[in-house]
Amino acid sequence: MNGTGEETGFEVAIVVPKKRDKEKDESCDCVEFLVDELTKAGLIVERVNGISDEFLKLAAPLETLGRAAYELQMKKLTYIGMDLQFEWDQVTAFVRQPDGSLFSWLERYNCFRHLIYGIVNETESELILKFDGDEFALQRNESLVERMEVEGIVKQVFPTHEEVTRKRLLWIWALNWLGFTEQPIDEVYSYFGIKIATYFAFLGMYTKWLVFPAVLGLAVQLLDFGSMQLLVLPSFFIVVISWAVLLFQFWKRKNSALLARWEINYSLTDYRAINMEMTSFKQSREQLQENMDADKPTEKRALQKDEWFGLLLRIRNNAIIVMAIICLQLPFELAYAHLYEIIESDVLKYAVTALYLLAIQYYTKLGGKVSVILIKYENNQGEESSADSLVYKVFGLYFMQTYIGLFYHALLHRNFTTLRQVIIQRLIVSQILENLVENSIPYLQYSYKKYKAIRKKKCDKRSAGAKSLQFASRVEKEYLKPSYTASIGEELEDGLFDDFLELALQFGMIMMFACAFPLIFCFAALNNITEIRTDALKLLVMLKRPVPRASATIGAWLNIFQFLIVMSICTNCVLLICLYDQEGNWRIEPGLAGILIMEHILLLIKFGFSRCVPEEPAWVRLSRVKSAVQARDVCSKQLLKSLSQRKID
């Protein structure tokens, strides 16, 4: 939306096939009928002819979006700090976005979806509609677009890029390599939504914080500390753990500050959580009321039964995943690590690694699909809870795949030379290849779809005389680009799942093997600086504009990062024992006792820092308190006025 907030750009497009034959009665043509209904709904429609498809680009005046927001009973933050249901007549009472627009990108997209899919047959009988000689009946109160999707007429409804903003972000963000970790986070939020903006804010902060352990690790790796050498690795280990704990405590502060800056109220998140819980219990309560009187003790027992049944389902599904990891993945990973250890030929090592990577990719994708199926049978409270459950299950598969070989080399064989080689291979070669694949595969997919569309058109008899065909419209090029989806499927997660997974696996590697290879932090910092720009380039150039999702934090990934910190305390203590015992610089007995004491101290530091550093800045807390007091005063005045009026009547 522009700064005045009067009208959106063309932000959504509907794709339909080009008609082969013109209908004699255009009133029965479903595409013409759809265009008329979209116009009646208040949308601005621009029709664009492509090579093989037609595109309906949609924009909306502010009043149209306001009407849709009211029909959706959308909650928005007001200037008194309360989230109230939106009303167009009271539009000045609602807080505007950082860019001056009334609605965020997520809210606008939801309004567009409501207007598009809210077109139904409101007549008293069915409507007969036609397309290219075929006809279908639209039943009463049936959604027109949903029926056209079933009939294969509407191919896709997708968000489109706004060219002026996209090009601006391309120059000041994706191609700004001299900016180090600087990013226009507010503009990213306005254009892509809160979930993607939160990811890039976390990536930027994490990369900036990596500079300190990278410099420290470089010094530990290259400098000779003489008689103090025995204390260098334990000291480095303590500093790194303290650094990691502080990183995530200060990230929580930054996250809360971003939410306050973007005018996202905490009560809205609480409201959504309560709404999800009430929705999950709604069906069971309705069944209960149909069969018996809805007395409180019976309802309480039914809800408790439903709660514990859902918990047992999650325990069962988690047990299935754990047993699959232990019985199937663990032997396979250990066999690969053993072969890598005993094979002497480098050529054979690369061949075995290639076969391993092919096999493990298939296995992890299969595990991800199984996890999605299992989650459907869980009694999760809303889509966000289901997404978190999926993250935990799939991360377990990748955790075993990524780290079991490293544990094998470090703990069983104590071969730290091979361990460092594998770490370099995983961290440098693998991530460079992943960055190349992330950007090359979408381009290849787009090129293939473009070639296929042109070739199909040339083979058409009516286009046999055409010598060359080119895509003239931006919207058609965007339609052919891949969507921003997760590798395990798009049911519950978007492409941020893979990006967060990559960060989590990297964080686990640099933390859990910090003592074995301190220089690893330098490689991680350099990789993340590149990751910021390549991920931005991927979103702005290689892929369709992502569908916005409502997620104000990094969700389950924060718990995974915290788990990896605790794991790193344990693994680095074991590594220190192996290192010092192998080199014979001290006796294992006092060394072991000292390391065990250090482990307990670090665990105390980890949980102590979590309490010492507040999770939100003082100004954010003060702002919330002021808003709460102001809202209470307004409600009190309205209540007193209502009671006084009732007394007079």
Can you characterise this structure?
By secondary structure, this protein is an alpha+beta fold. It is 66% helix and 6% strand. It has 19 helices and 8 strands. It has helices at 30-40, 62-71, 105-117, 144-150, 163-174, 185-192, 194-222, 229-261, 266-291, 296-342, 346-375, 383-412, 416-459, 474-480, 496-512, 520-542, 556-583, 588-612, 618-648; strands at 12-17, 44-49, 53-59, 75-77, 83-85, 127-131, 134-138, 156-159. The chain has a 4-stranded antiparallel sheet with strand order 2-3-1-8, with helices on both faces. The protein has a two-stranded antiparallel sheet with strand order 4-5. A two-stranded antiparallel sheet has the order 6-7. β2 and β3 (53-59) form a beta hairpin. The chain is globular, with a radius of gyration of 29 Å. This is Anoctamin-10 protein.
Briefly summarize what is shown.
This protein is of the alpha+beta class and 649 residues long.
List keywords for this structure.
disordered N terminus, alpha+beta, two-stranded antiparallel ribbon, globular, Anoctamin-10 protein, 8 strands, 6% strand, single chain, 649 residues, 4-stranded antiparallel beta sheet
Topology:
Layout: E1 12-17, H1 30-40, E2 44-49, E3 53-59, H2 62-71, E4 75-77, E5 83-85, H3 105-117, E6 127-131, E7 134-138, H4 144-150, E8 156-159, H5 163-174, H6 185-192, H7 194-222, H8 229-261, H9 266-291, H10 296-342, H11 346-375, H12 383-412, H13 416-459, H14 474-480, H15 496-512, H16 520-542, H17 556-583, H18 588-612, H19 618-648
Antiparallel strand pairs: 1-3, 1-8, 2-3, 4-5, 6-7
Helix pairs in contact: 2-3, 5-16, 6-7, 7-8, 7-16, 8-17, 8-18, 9-10, 10-11, 10-12, 11-12, 12-13, 12-15, 12-17, 13-16, 15-16, 15-17, 17-18
Protein name: Anoctamin-10 protein
